[in-house]
């Protein structure tokens, strides 16, 4: 089974070996899973796998980095449009707080499902940083992802300013009435640590990257907002707070929403180390990058089977 797992992202069909994280799969392998044979027998299944996990050739092609960056730009634009737009309309008294905080959660669910296979659907500098610290995402791609995420957030808030005018801080995240910066900071640290833990967890070998991640991450964002929004606004994302601050010109308490999510992401990486050991295995790396190649898919499928049978 380990012969199906690439040693590195540059391995071709003729270069196979034992990769980090593949040992648990290889030790219990009873038969070989060849997803290449899925196509002729089950064309619909293979098409669904391609839609969910993407195409390795496209992802590895440096000439198509623009596609991944555009995916992050579009995804972050959509997320901040829902998050900041919901906050703005709630401040105007036109929608409920529940609607304002559930909307971004549902938006993230949709984004992960429709473009997670392209870029990994990070949508958040803290998430890109966490994936890189785990060894699941190349450091050379981090600056580009962060810049494009900030750009997407800014474009969303400029659109809101064009539609509504510079009102209600353009839906900026701020400490709630009666709460101080330090209280909002602590809340952002804890909430982000849990959010990134959910993200890193759903990118592990034992779980799907597509639908499970979408439901887990989107559901967590909505749940966190339902109870914690009155304290800090529940940003958990430096880009989400950057857009309204830049577009409105109001940087009040922005440092809270930069320091808090970054600190929370670092804590989540520590949690992941305790829970799952070091990162960088082929499956998690593929998930963080937005694609699972055939070897990683086979390893994931075999491990899921072994877990169901009680072998792991």
Search tags:
312 residues; 2 domains; disordered N terminus; Glycerol uptake facilitator protein; globular; mainly alpha
* Low-confidence residue ranges: 1-41, 204-208
Give the termini distance in whole angstroms: 15 Å
Provide the number of structural domains: 2
How many helices?
14
Overall average residue pLDDT: 80
> What gyration radius follows from the Cα positions, in whole Å?
20 Å
Explain the overall architecture.
- The protein has 312 residues and is mainly alpha-helical.
- It folds into two domains: 2-54 and 292-308, no CATH class; 56-289, Up-down Bundle (Glycerol uptake facilitator protein).
- It has 14 helices and no strands.
- The two termini are 15 Å apart.
- Residues 1-41 and 204-208 have low confidence and may be disordered.
